[in-house]
Backbone:
């Protein structure tokens, strides 16, 4: 499996380099980036973690998640949906979740407990758009969150999150634009990167992140 992953990465880089000279230049300057989804996390866990990170810096979200996990001393693994549902809303609020996030997490847990969230195995028979359609009814889950699940939990290779600020900013910098592209324009341009749009996204994120870190504080 690891060898096949490396081969897929090489195929993606070679394909993207042929299709887009600008992206080729970015890839030459950066180390090879591989799509490495978290294979151990369930979709339920990934969703709860995504909700925790919404509108928060990474450190703050991690602290809240740490306090959340401490509510379940009986397990070393991420709690099951039924376990989450047994925790009163007040206790979830006490670890740092906003009221909106508590409602979202409880909704996601309730739906997962009823089998209304697809499992990883079930998603192997679903297209990207089918997975997104299955996740959008969940409280607190928009298309961007669903796309993050596709990329970083399911390892889908052809996802371009055109609403993502980092993606659009990375494109603006790399392609020397004065303003960020509109989502529709980015989607149209990014069509040439298919079927490796997730890999292209990794590089655009890298450009935006590198530029942000290079700025003086």
Residues:
């Amino acid at each position: 499996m690891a060898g096949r992953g490396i081969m897929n990465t090489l195929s993606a880089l070679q394909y993207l380099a042929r299709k887009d000279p600008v992206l080729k230049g970015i890839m030459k300057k950066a180390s090879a980036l591989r799509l490495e989804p978290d294979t151990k996390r369930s979709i339920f866990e990934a969703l709860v973690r995504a909700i925790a990170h919404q509108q928060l810096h990474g450190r703050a979200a991690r602290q809240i998640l740490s306090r959340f996990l401490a509510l379940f001393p009986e397990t070393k693994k991420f709690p099951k949906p039924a376990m989450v549902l047994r925790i009163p809303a007040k206790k979830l609020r006490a670890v740092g979740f906003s009221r909106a996030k508590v409602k979202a997490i409880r909704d996601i847990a309730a739906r997962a407990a009823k089998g209304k969230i697809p499992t990883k195995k079930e998603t192997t028979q679903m297209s990207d758009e089918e997975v997104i359609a299955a996740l959008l009814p969940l409280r607190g889950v928009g298309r961007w969150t669903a796309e993050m699940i596709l990329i970083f939990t399911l390892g889908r290779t052809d996802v371009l999150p055109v609403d993502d600020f980092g993606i659009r900013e990375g494109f603006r910098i790399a392609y020397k634009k004065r303003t960020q592209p509109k989502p529709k324009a980015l989607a149209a341009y990014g069509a040439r990167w298919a079927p490796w749009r997730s890999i292209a996204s990794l590089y655009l994120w890298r450009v935006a992140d590198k530029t942000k870190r290079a700025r003086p504080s």
